[in-house]
Amino acid sequence: MAFVLSLLMALVLVSYGPGGSLGCDLSQNHVLFGTKNLRLLGQMRRLSPRFCLQDRKDFAFPQEMVEGGQLQEAQAISVLHEMLQQSFNLFHTERSSAAWDTTLLEQLRTGLHQQLDDLDACLGQVMGEEDSALGRMGPTLAVKRYFQGIHVYLKEKGYSDCAWEIIRVEIMRSLSSSASLQERLKMMYGDLSSP
């Protein structure tokens, strides 16, 4: 559960700078949607992970690159945005609609979309024209490649129930494994208790 809140805290931390707001106004709902999204992913479980052990795979989440100490403010926001965008895209396909409870899936899509809307404003504010290449290189590109591997895996497995279950667990893990990024942002932006 500690990891589940890591991404949420990182997203909150991104909105605060040394002197307060970065001009990046993340609503309180942004954090609530993040918590709800992780809870929804947990509720979407249809199979026991033990049943799908033969389908497990290491998707090589770019943890070192994503959590590396050299991430700049714009890169951190870009990486978080890319993770949310790719997760939204993954769960917004016809194949995913067939795999999951439609009510839970629609709630997840809505929550991810809301978080993306909140981060879009921040991304535009912190990424000037000179930073526009950040989405095509480094940590953000590593996240894109990671999700490409997930799409290839699903296709290779014929979008089976076990493949979707493995992906559900993987997405939960990737969205909640940003503890180091959280610490990095905390050091960059200071204590949240005094914005």
Automatic annotation (TrEMBL):
It is found in: Secreted. GO terms for biological process: defense response to virus; female pregnancy. InterPro entries: 4_helix_cytokine-like_core (IPR009079), Interferon_alpha/beta/delta (IPR000471). It holds the Pfam family Interferon. GO terms for cellular component: extracellular space. Keywords: Antiviral defense, Cytokine, Disulfide bond, Hormone, Pregnancy, Secreted, Signal. GO terms for molecular function: cytokine activity; cytokine receptor binding; hormone activity. Residues 1-23 form the signal peptide. SMART domains: IFabd (SM00076). Belongs to the alpha/beta interferon family. IFN-alphaII subfamily. This is Antiluteolysin. It comes from Ovis ammon polii. The lineage of its organism: Eukaryota, Metazoa, Chordata, Craniata, Vertebrata.
